[in-house]
Amino acid sequence: MLRDLELSGDLELSGELDEIDRAALAEVIELSIGALLEDARAGLSRSETKALLARRAAPEPGAVAVPAPPPTPGAPSPRVDAPALVRQGRRFEVGFFYAAQAVAAGAPIDNGPGLSLAFSEEMDRAVHRPRLFSAGWISVQYLLPETVTDAQAGVGLDGVAARLGLELGLRRWRLRLGGGWNFIRVSPAASTASVALAPAHWATTLALQGALRAQIAQTAYARFWVSLLADLLPTAVDYDVAVGGNLVTVFSPWRVRPGLALEVTFP
After folding, report:
1. Residues 33 and 115 in one domain
2. What is the pLDDT of residue 50?
3. Are residues 158 and 249 in the same domain?
4. Total tally of structural domains belonging to the chain
C-alpha cells in the first residue's frame, strides 16, 4: 500500500526560477516519484533541502569575478589627508669653496678660497618627497691681492669677505640670502715720482648677497655645489688719489658684483 509522501521542511527558491532552481525542483520531484513507485516513505529534511539549495551560492568553476562599478561622476571623492612633515634631524655642514666676482669693467676679478659653516635642518614628507631644507650659514673668504693702476697712480687691494644669512630650498636646489662686510686693505702705489702716497689702511664696506646653489654631484661623504651669486653694495665706493690738489679716481667698483662659486660640503 502506498504511504503518504512527506517533505520535511520548506523548499526555498530564489524567486527568479533560474537554472539552479529548476535543477533543485527536478531532483525533489524525481526523488518523490521514485518513493511513490517503490511504495516507501521518502522525504527531504530541512538540512538536506538547504544543502541542495546552497549550491547556488558557490561560484561555478572558472567563473570570473566582476569588478566593482566605477564611482558615479560628480560624486565626492574620499578624503585624502596631506602628508605630514617628518623631521629628519639637525646637523652641521662644513664647506670649502672658491669664488670669483667681477668688480668693474677692465679691473681684475676678485677671487679667493673660503670656508663655510651651516647649521641645517631637513624635513621629509611621509608620502611625497622632495626633502625640504633650511639652514643658517656663515662664510669667510680670503680675497687674493690685486693691483689696479692708471697713468698717475695705482692701488693694491686684498682682504677678507665675511657673510652670514639663511638658506632655504630643496635637497638639490637652494637659495641663500644674507649680508656682511668686506674688510679691504688698501695699499696706494705711485706711477710717477711726483705723486705723494698715503699710508696703507683698511676700509670696511657693507655688502648684501644672494646666491642660487645647485648640487651637481654627491658621494658617501661629500656633496659638490655650484653657485651663481651677486653682491650688492648699498653705498658706492671709489678709490681716489690726490694729484696737484685734485682728487683723481683710480678705481670705481660696481655696486652690483656678479660671481660664481664652487664648493664641497661635508655633512
Report:
1. no
2. 67
3. yes
4. 2
DSSP output for 180-240: EEEEEEEEEEESSTTPPPPPPEEEEEEEEEEEEEEEEEE-SS-EEEEEEEEEE-SS---EE
Q: Global pTM?
A: 0.62
What would the grid cell of residue 58 be? 558557490
Note whether residue 77 is domain-resident: no
At residue 17 the predicted structure's pLDDT band, cuts being 50, 70 and 90, is low
Amino acid identity of residue 11, one-letter, is: L
Same domain, 206 and 107: yes
Residue span of the structural domain in which 227 resides: 85-266
Question: Has residue 64 been placed in a domain?
Answer: no
Q: Is residue 164 part of a domain?
A: yes
Q: Is residue 73 part of a domain?
A: no
